[in-house]
Amino acid sequence: MAIKFPSLDFFQELANRMNANPAEFEKLGFCDTVMGVKVDGDTSHLYSLTFDIFDCSDVRELSSPEGAEFDFMLEAPLSLWRESLESIQKHGQPEPAYTLNSLSHVGDRMKVVYDDPEGHDKFYRFMATIQAFVNQASDLEIEWA
Amino acid sequence: MSYYGTNDFSYNSDFNLRVRDIKKGNLDFSWLDDARETVKVRRKDPRRGLTVEDCEVGPYSIENTPEIVRENRGLAPRGAILAEGSEQPDLGPSLNKKSDVWGYRVQRYWEEAMSRQWNVSTDVPWQDMDKHEIPDEVEIAFCQLCTLLSEVEMIATDLPAKWSHHMNSYFQEVKGFIATQAIDEARHAEVFRKRALAGAGLFRASVRGEHALKGILEADSYSEGSVFLHVLGEGFILTLFRSSEFISPTPVEQRMFQLVMQDEARHVSYGLQHLKYLMDNCPEVRPQINGFLDEAERHLTGLFNPDQLESMIVLGGKGTTPECIRHGIEVVGAFQGKQIEEYFHRAERAGLPERRERSPLLELQQRMIAGITG
Amino acid sequence: MSYYARDDFFNNPEVLERTVEILKGNLELEWMGIDVERVQCRPKDARRGLTFGDTNVGGYGWDKIPEKIRHNYSMAPRGAQLPDGLPHLGYDINRKSEVWSENAPELYEESKARHWIPAREVPWDAVENLEHGQEVELGLAQVYTDLTVMASLLGDMPSKWVWHINQELVELKMWLCTQMFDAARLADVFRKRAIAGGAGLGRDHAALGELVKSVFDAGNYPCASASANILLSGLMQTVLRHVGAVSTNAADQTIAHFSVQDVSRSLAYGIGHMQYLIEQRPHVATGLRDHLDEVENTLVGLLGSPLFFSNLALLTAGSRSEAGAAVPQVTALFRRFADEHAARRRVSGIASEKSPLEAFVSELEA
To answer: pTM of the full predicted structure?
Structure first.
């Protein structure tokens, strides 16, 4: 069954898959961070993802980042999220230009919003886990908003 | 031999009498009666296991350790019952002040490092190298970059090693964390060396870069070495790794950079938290650290050497045609600006906002921009 | 700041000019023409991945490292082109036989492949629900306190020396980094185990302090290596095997089998190092032999100390009241250690005819 992007269900499905796949994520190590995902479009959507040890323990949709204690937030237009996820779906993992790192680094097409540099550095400290989390969408049937 | 034990047991009559007693089964159990504080330790979360923080109770907690450790001159772990003053052999630790080495959250960094180890030999998909065609000029540029990275990474094994054995054993978490750094950085030098040898080979070492490395190694104190290595040097290298993942020719190199980036970010975080702890608890060293950074930042400009800059541009543009070069310059220019900006932000957060004003880095950047536009 | 480079690159107009030219698009790309040996290493066995063994080829391999390194005192990776003007990084161990062992690259790979995580891989629930009595727990807490001290030394020793070693010996330096890391992991797990059992850390005592000081203060690296890697690691291996055998607790057994693996790698390196060194420079055997005899003297002080001996007897017997009867078993344990240690010394080329350890154990047996 197709799953809509962006939606709470989409991120919840990734969280379920992560929690059901301890072998891959335990190998990558502890991941402790609260991150935001913002998808900009006609209507913006904001999600909070809480990573706790080897799991994604909490996924929720927020109406605004105010009050959310994100270590960092990834913010990009829907079209860019779509390109990135399509690259993952095509290759099983993103092409170099579509990794979370590249998108947020070169040309800053994806913004990394943060207050505390340590929170910012958590994005890099847990990069392999966060990328593996998103890569789980490789075989999802996605219905684009 | 530099040290001879205080007793020669071959000719020690007290010892011989003791051995006779032992043989008769007369054993001394007075140590069982030592007064000690019993504690109850439990895992807060079994999935995380038993962490150092779980063991931070009573006499074992760093919170209950004085700023200056005077009583322990040997290798006793924090919280052990110490031998009577003069009885404890002195191993001569010279870093006995908590603010000399400690960083906020170092216990967590230790556990994170233990948990996120990886293996160059098996976690990089070397078997896929022959699946991808890489133009020769791009391969050479990548190997020139690997040469530089293999060269600079080993400084981050030598520096922790230089200071670790001077640290009081009560600071076990810091010693442990910088041991994880030593192995992380050995692994980084390993991955870049192996990648170069799997491809076009090793190219030219960097004279200017090495002067910067010498500046790190010869810092006067651990804190100076740490701020140069962890905050300034590794902060710059972290941004370089981020760019390198983007400009990686194939998924093999992309994976390499994804993995090394994580380790590097952990080291930067420790450096930031050490600097912050130092500024919070020992503000009188601020002029000294600032004076040191004035010179360290000058040293760091050595890392912008022509071979490295040109190879990054070729990689960024994926070739040497004028169009590729133009594109490569855009990529490299963007990351250089980011390196400087992120460094100032970290320094500010650690309590050194004045770096932005007094640093020579911005002046250098402005001179470069003026040169290019003028 | 101790080091000021001769050339202040920051104020060197040529440096700025060259950088500006590059950023304007005027690249020279002269480095692309460097004549480089291409070896194209690939994994011989996909299951092991790309190992250092696979990269020991051509001019890049460790087989080509000369005994006396005269050409490079910088951090340039072995096999790279060395331009004029590379600084001296202060390395003062520049002789291969001073540190090298043929098995070091392989031990480095083994260490990475056998990484374990104390926080998660030890069944700590067994420590939260101890089935043995308080006396045994106090004994275990004491032995883990001793082991923490020994592990700290096993980390401090390579830390003291590795940054003096020439970068051409890079695989060896990396192996010493794994030793620092392995030792930190051991110190972590031993300290946690002592605290988690409830009895807490035991005594730091002078007899053990004397032993670790005599190893730490060794005047040169080969002596430090012989005493830390052969003698101290051998002692730890014996003690850990014994703890694993006498404790009925699953956590202690797990700690023992993981930790024995770690210290056994150091033993393998220590023996390999001595063999390589003595093959290259047979005359140094005398000094090493004397040094080990001296360190054995402090070892005897520890083995015969009231605390160390009585604790092993307590753990062996399972109670203080029956410990006296366990003296023969502890003596047998020391005999096995002395024999194994003597065999290691023999195979390393530094056997002793006046070994204090042998004399002490013989006296115990008499």
So the answer is: 0.95
